[in-house]
Amino acid sequence: SFTMNIYLFVYDLMQFCGHSWIFTNMIIRYMTFGKDSLADTFYSIGLVMRLCQLLSVLEILHILIGIDKSRLLPRFLQITERIIVLFVVINSQEEVQGKYVVCVLFFLWNLLDVVRYTYNMLARMGIYYLPLTWLNFSLCIPLYPLSVLAKGFAICVSLPYFESFGTYSIKLPFPFTFSIYFPYVLKMYLLVLFTGMCFIIQNLFHERMAHLGTGNIKNKRS
User: Fold this and answer.
1) Which residues contact 106 (CB under 8 A, 6 or more apart)?
2) CA distance 64 to 204
3) What is the pTM of this model?
4) For the segment 118-172, what is each residue's pLDDT rounded down to a tens digit?
5) Looking at residue 145, what DSSP letter applies?
6) Rounded CA gap, 139 and 119, in Å?
7) Furthest C-alpha separation in the chain
8) How far apart are CA 140 and CA 74, in angstroms?
9) Could you tell me the CA-to-CA distances from 144 to 50, 70, 151 in Å, in that order?
10) Would strands 179-180 and 170-171 be described as parallel, antiparallel, or unpaired?
11) Inter-residue contact 82 to 113 (CB < 8 Å)
């Protein structure tokens, strides 16, 4: 248990460092270059962002082996949403990488993750600050739906490029008469994305009540 706690602390620390670097870099670049910095957000921080999101896949494993008590399905949906939008939609279409929606999406993701991993690190040590606890379980409720809207917008922006270039669209040769038109797959995924959002928001409210209920607040204060 102690070893696993140390491992989880190191994992949270690595994610905190990565997302803090991205978040700080975005703010400094915007203060220095203004709106011109928005168009090349992906080119300047995309590599670190991809590494952090790949590392987050370990969180699914943490839940499966029982060292993380979070619910599996909500976390799985949140992680796969980011992986699909980042690697399948944005990374595969260079024309989408320069859109402002990528900057908005990265800002929302990193703002949420800096708070979450800070809270997790302190919680591993048994330290609970009420303002940070409140922020961790409250900030995600308005920002997560905004991030889903940004993901949906990024997918819609990418559709013309997937249609033009035929990326990921597959047409099987004879004797098979089966083909996969990827823009249709993305349109169907939009339905999954917004349906999953309702489920995840419900889970976020449940977690907020569990951690910020009157009894829990008194216990953490004591």
Assistant:
1) 22, 26, 41, 42, 45, 49
2) 20
3) 0.90
4) 999 999 999 999 999 999 999 999 999 999 999 999 999 999 999 999 899 888 7
5) H
6) 12
7) 71
8) 13
9) 19, 17, 10
10) antiparallel
11) no
